[in-house]
Structures are given as C-alpha cells and as structure tokens.
Design goal:
Blueprint lengths: L2 H6 L9 H26 L8 H9 L13 H29 L1 H4 L2 E3 L13 E5 L5 E5 L13 H14 L5 E7 L4 E7 L9 E5 L3 H4 L15 E6 L4 E8 L13 E4 L2 H4 L5 E4 L2 E3 L11 E5 L27 E4 L6 E4 L3 E2 L9 E6 L2 E7 L26 E3 L9 E5 L2 E5 L5 E10 L2 E11 L2 E6 L8 E2 L5 E3 L3 E7 L20 E9 L11 E5 L7 E5 L7 E11 L4 E19 L10 E5 L6 E10 L2 E15 L3 E5 L4 E6 L14 E7 L21 H13 L5 E7 L30
Parallel strand pairs: 17-38
Antiparallel strand pairs: 1-5, 2-3, 2-6, 4-5, 6-15, 7-8, 7-13, 8-12, 9-10, 9-14, 11-12, 16-17, 18-26, 19-20, 19-25, 20-23, 21-22, 21-26, 22-23, 24-25, 27-28, 27-37, 28-36, 29-30, 29-37, 30-36, 31-34, 31-35, 32-33, 32-35, 33-34
Helix pairs in contact: 4-9
Length: 742
C-alpha cells in the first residue's frame, strides 16, 4: 500500500474530484518524503549504515579517522571501524569482569605515597601528575579543603584529588591505603583507564615534598645545609653548584630526574618550582668549578646575567647587576630530587589484564585467586588470633626475681606477662606448692594474663618498690576450656593475601544464640567494642565463619558506677567503705579505689551490709582510716554491651552462645612484600572464582577470537628455580617448599 492508498482509506468516498485527489496526492507525496528523510537520518546514526561525512563523525567519536590522502571508500572504512570497535568493546567488557572478580587495583595503574598521615601541607601547595594522555596537570591544595591543612588526613587528600580529576571529566581517583603491618594510612592514586594502557605518574610539586610519592632520591644528609651557587650559563639554563657546607649526594642523581625546589631561601630569589634535571656532575672531595653541580632550565627566570660555564662568575654589582646567587639549603624538603615513576598495571604484584598481541588472539592474565569468593580455612589462610587448646597453660613467676614475679590483684586474682594473641578460657586448676585452687576464668589481653579463682588462692604477698603486690611463688596454670583452632591442615597459617579484609585483636563473645536465616537489630555480648560503625567476622577460623556483618554502634550495659567515698577504714585484712550514694556493688564484684593516700587499688567485695556500705578483703594487713576522700568505681560483672546490628544482614549459619565476634580493621587485602619474604609459603586458595571468571569471559568473547589465559602468581620466591641445582641431593630451594591448596 502506497502513501496515496494509505490516506485514501481514511477519507469519505463521496469526496472526489480533481482538486480533492490532487490534495490527497500532495499529502501522500510529502509524507513519503518525510519518511525517506527520517530513514536517511536514522541510517546516519549508526556505524553499520552511515556514510560519507556522517560515517566519519561516528567513527571519530571512537578516535578512528579516515586518512584523507588515501581516498578510502565508505565500505572499506566502515568494515575497518566495525572490527576495531568490536575489539575495543570486547576488551572493555573483559576488564569490567576482571575488575569485578579481582578488584580495581588489578586492572588500573596505581601508586602509593611513602609517608603516612597526617601531612603538614600549606595553603597554595601544588601537586603535579599525569595520567594516560600524558598531560601534566597541577592540583592546588587550599586550606578550605581540610579541617586542618597542617594536619591533613590521607582521606582528605584523596578526596581533593578525586574531586579535581572528576571536574576535568577524567575517571582517575584516589583512595586511602592502610598498611596492616604498621596500621598506618597512606594515599593511593589510580589511573583513569582500565587495562594495560592505564598509567599514573607523579611529577613533583611542593605538596610532594610532604606526601613523597615515589621515587624520591635518597639525597638526605645528616645536616642539610648545602650552600648552592646559582648561575645562568646559556639561555635559560641555570646551574646549581656546591660551594660550601655539606657535600650534596649528587652521585645519586641522573639526567631527566626532577628537582623540587621549594625552600624559603630559594623562594626569596623566585627560584622555586619543579624542574627537569638537564645535566649533573657528582662532586669531588671539595667544591670545584667543574664538579658538584646540576642544571635545570627555567624560561621564566631572568634575574641573573649569563656567565661562562666552568669559570667563577664575576662579582655582583647590586642593585642592578647579578651574576650569581648563593642560597643555603635549610632542610631536606627545601631541595629534593625524584625520579618520576610511571605506574603501570602489569608492574604490580597482582594484575588482571587483557591484551590482543596478534590478530584474533586475546591474551588474558589472571591472578591465581579472586577476591570475591567466601573464604574459610580450606584453600586459604588467615592470621590466627588463637593458639592451640593448651596455649594458656604454663608455669609462671620467679622465686628470686621480684620484677618477674606474679602480681597479686586480690585474694582470688593474679596477673602475669604472657605473650601471644588475646584469648580466654574457663575452668582448670592453679597450683602452687601443694595447693590446688579451682580456676573460674582466665583472660589474656595485651600480653598479660589474668587468672580469677573460685576461692582464695592463699599465695603469700610481697610488695615491690613501686607498691605493687607480688608473690615469690611459682604458679602452674592448667586451663580446662579454651577455644581451639582447627589443626587438620598440613601448614602453618599466615595472612590470607587475597581476602578483602584484615582483622584486629578486639573481639567480643555472644551472650545468645544466633540462628541461620535470622536478621538481628541488637545482640548482647560479653565485652565492649569501639562505639562507632564497624564490621565483624562471626566465628573466625571456624567452619561457621561468616561476615563481614556491619554493626552501627555499641550501647554499654554496665559502665563502672563511680561514687564518692564518705569514709574508708581497714582493720587487719577487712576493708570497710561507705559512700554518699548507693554504690551498686554485689558480693564477688570488683571495685577500684582512687584518690586516697593509702587505700588506692583493686579489691573484691566480700559483703554488702547496705546500699551505701561494702566490705572487701585487702591483700596486706594494716590499721588505717580516712574520711571524705576519693572515689570508688564498681564493676558488677565482666563488661557487657549491646551491639546495634545492621538489620539488612541475614545470617547463613548458626552461632552458639560464646561465639567470637572479631573486629575487622580494614576492607583492603594485605599487600605482601614484592620478594615474598613476609610469608613462608604461597597458598593458591580456592579456584572456583577464577574458573567462573574464565567461563564468563569465554561466553562474551566473539566467535573467531582465540583466548589464551595465563595465571599470575605474586612472585617466584618459593616457586621459581631458587637454588638452580640439578643435583638430586641438593635440589632447588623451591622443590623443598610445600605449596598446597585446592
């Protein structure tokens, strides 16, 4: 049906005649013309149907241009563009998949600075960097960007950098990086692109004398007071020559390094900025006219008249004529050298990248383990907080050395040094001489173990020079019930280098059972965590481990009740305390007395005659009394609190009463040393994530493209041919190392 017939069917038959037919035909012709124009416009919107200048525009959007001198036809140019864009789309999608499975650090270039927060920045400091396009960009820090620019946090610096690049429509960004070995926070910059062509380079700036992104040359001296004579040799070339004081370490400097000159003494002569080192000569034993100098180019500086290189400059004739300036360096930050490091993804310990090294060949590099697979003990390894079942047992104290003797807290409690991770247990026996006393509770925290007995231990007490009560008896501790690690695996546990979190020593224990499939808003626990948002791992290192579970805050249930003392007296070992308000103590609770001259210490309450009176048992006998002094803090029970949990979490496992809830310190995976020396073996970890990633990549790869997948390990330490011997009696070191996993 043509356009005339289309219009005719909607018009009454009695409307006829030459004029009517001509009008209908005109409408039909115009509609046909508009339809053809619409189709023609639509055709020019896609690469596969566009032509002429419109095809050029479509492909120019993808940075593909037609060579004007070749006379390439639309057909040939279109085919080439389709092939190129198809390849780009495949690699882009693959890098999105790799980023999902392995994290943004593996598909983007990134670089970390070498000084931890806080940073003593100043208003107006500049920071020079470049991304994939190679353009040098200058970021200026302003005091309004920080709470206190002189104590700038890494998160603040990262936010300023990210805002700056995003305003320029770049995909680069910055994040904080937590070094788990030192618990210090640094800054990490990321390139804007995904894939092998991602780059980020720090090129200097005054802010980098504070932040110190690599690679700052090690030219710092014991005393940084070098005297520099600055002359102009040819054109805009400035020579900085050592003429006195400490000899500079110019033997560490090379052409194309950058020098960051920002000391106030240099600023006074307008000689500040970041410059490329054009030439350098290491110093001799002493100052010399033709040694111990470096040269830069500064087109904007014209304050010095030109002098001949290698000769002493003429004397200055102030105020108009200067042949040289002499500037004394006041600190290392005044004049620093650096070699700009272009960070590339494939220079990282872990990288996940795709290349097309040949036609129809796609080579993909993937780390052995992904970061999104849930990790238990099987096939991965964690830093354990607990030891074996007997790790709290042992013999402690000294019969001769009072400094190593066991501290006596009360008649039922003792404390001593014991190294190891925080742990606790219940039950068991404390033995000294022929005495055996039943243990109630044991807790090790911050390398000190406290033992509380169910009845008085009877240990004899000696007071040392600092007034601390100790016993010169050897105690033997055998704890009955201690949380025990699983010990069914053949190797020691180390940090899981792939797990996207790190753990801390703080933990609490659940006071109620958690059921699989449930959601909770609150949970009562023994212990107190920091009252700020955090994330917890339930049942760390057990088959039921899960997390992270986010908690919003903490409500303390029984903070110590502090009341003022009306009177306090002691007769022999009986200590009587009266207070001006109800104290809340109960028998067997512990109280802390402070602010008195002779009674300060921790005591266990033996009896509570009334709400404002308590009786405790002292360690050493005496007869003394005081009136209206000090305070007493009452802890009725072990610290308890209520966690406010994120209700969006649904538990996958049951967690029994007493389950450990371990605080996570970071959502960043541990970064091992590049030589592998900070862990004794490498665990490949679970492979399911990598296998699934391979399947997804294969499913989206175009027909006719050959995939070559290469598995990347962090380094060859322990895996490579270390030792290099073919002698079976002395095999390579790597052959002696057991590498296990699933």
């Amino acid at each position: 049906m043509d356009k005339y017939e289309h219009f005719r069917q909607f018009i009454a038959e009695f409307i006829q005649g030459p004029n009517s037919e001509a009008m209908i035909q005109t409408l039909a012709d115009e509609q046909g013309r508009l339809d053809k124009l619409s189709r023609a416009v639509t055709d020019q919107l896609t690469i596969s149907t566009s032509s002429s200048i419109y095809l050029d525009k479509r492909l120019a959007d993808l940075f593909i241009t037609r060579p004007p001198e070749l006379g390439m036809s639309d057909i040939s140019f279109r085919k080439m563009g389709i092939k190129i864009t198809a390849a780009k789309q495949i690699t882009e999608v693959i890098h999105v998949i790799l980023e999902t499975f392995y994290g943004e650090e593996t598909v983007r270039a990134n670089i970390s600075n070498t000084v931890a927060e806080p940073y003593n920045l100043e208003d107006g400091m500049d920071f020079i960097f470049a991304l994939e396009d190679g353009i040098e960009r200058v970021l200026t820090f302003n005091s309004t960007d920080f709470i206190n620019i002189n104590q700038a946090k890494a998160s603040e610096v990262a936010a300023v950098f990210t805002r700056f690049v995003r305003t320029q429509k770049l995909n680069s960004f910055a994040k904080i990086f937590n070094d788990l070995a030192t618990n210090e926070i640094y800054i990490k910059l990321f390139g804007g692109a995904k894939g092998p062509y991602s780059t980020v380079t720090v090129l200097g700036g005054e802010a980098n004398t504070v932040l110190r992104f690599p690679n700052v040359r090690g030219t710092e001296l014991d005393v940084n007071d070098t005297a520099w004579e600055i002359t102009r040799t040819v054109g805009s070339t400035l020579r900085f020559r050592w003429v006195g004081n400490s000899k500079p370490a110019l033997s560490l400097i090379y052409p194309d390094d950058r020098v960051m000159i920002y000391g106030q003494n240099f600023k006074d002569f307008e000689l500040d900025g970041t410059f490329v080192v054009k030439n350098v000569r290491p110093p001799l034993a002493g100052p010399d006219l033709d040694a111990g100098w470096f040269e830069i180019e500064n087109d904007a500086f014209a304050g010095i008249r030109s002098t001949q290189a290698g000769t002493a400059p003429p004397a200055n004739v102030p105020p108009d004529t200067f042949y040289s300036y002499t500037v004394i360096q006041a600190s290392f930050n005044d004049l620093m050298f650096m070699k700009p490091v272009k960070a590339l993804p494939n220079r990282q310990i872990r990288y996940a990248l795709a290349w097309e090294p040949a036609d129809a060949l796609l080579r993909i590099y993937m780390p052995a383990t992904t970061s999104i697979v849930s990790r238990g003990l099987v096939g991965a390894s964690h830093l354990h907080l607990l030891y074996s079942k007997t790790n709290l047992n042992g013999v402690y104290g000294s019969e001769t050395d009072l400094s190593s003797a066991v501290e006596v807290i009360s008649d039922r409690a003792i404390r001593y040094k014991q190294f190891g991770y925080d742990n606790n247990g219940t039950g068991g026996v404390l033995t000294w001489d022929a005495n055996e006393i039943e243990i109630d509770y044991v807790k090790r925290e911050q390398f000190r173990t406290t033992v509380i007995c169910k009845e008085p231990h009877g240990l004899p007490v000696t007071v040392d020079s600092s007034g601390i009560s100790k016993t010169l008896k050897i105690v033997d501790i055998e704890v009955a019930l201690v949380p025990e690690d699983l010990t069914t695996f053949p190797s020691p546990y180390v940090v899981d280098t792939e797990a996207p979190y790190a753990i801390r020593s703080e933990f609490v224990t659940s006071r109620s059972k958690v059921f699989a499939g449930s959601t909770l808003t609150t949970l009562e626990v023994d212990g107190i965590l920091p009252n700020k948002p955090g994330e917890l791992l339930f049942d760390l290192n057990k088959d039921t481990q899960e997390g992270p579970v986010r908690y919003i805050g903490v409500q303390a249930q029984n903070a110590p009740n502090v009341v003022n003392i009306t009177s306090i007296s002691q007769n022999a070992l009986v200590l009587t305390i009266t207070t001006n308000s109800p104290h809340g103590a109960i028998p067997n609770s512990f109280v802390t007395v402070a602010g008195t001259s002779v009674f300060d210490g921790v005591y266990e309450v033996n009896n509570v005659p009334n709400a404002t009176t308590m009786v405790a048992i002292a360690v050493a006998p005496q007869v003394a009394s005081q009136v209206g002094v000090g305070t007493v803090s009452v802890i009725v029970d072990n610290p308890r609190s209520t966690l406010l949990l994120d209700p969006s979490n649904r538990f996958r496992f049951d967690h029994e009463i007493g389950a450990d809830l371990t605080l996570m310190s970071s959502r960043f995976a541990y970064e091992p040393a590049s030589d592998g020396k900070d862990y004794p073996f490498y665990v490949t970890g679970v492979a399911e994530g990598r296998v699934f990633a391979e399947e997804v990549i294969e499913s989206i790869t175009a027909l006719g493209i050959n995939l070559e997948i290469i598995i990347v390990y962090p380094s060859d330490v322990g895996l490579g041919n270390q030792g290099g011997s073919d002698n079976t009696d002395n095999p390579p070191a790597s052959d002696k190392i057991i590498v296990w996993g699933v």
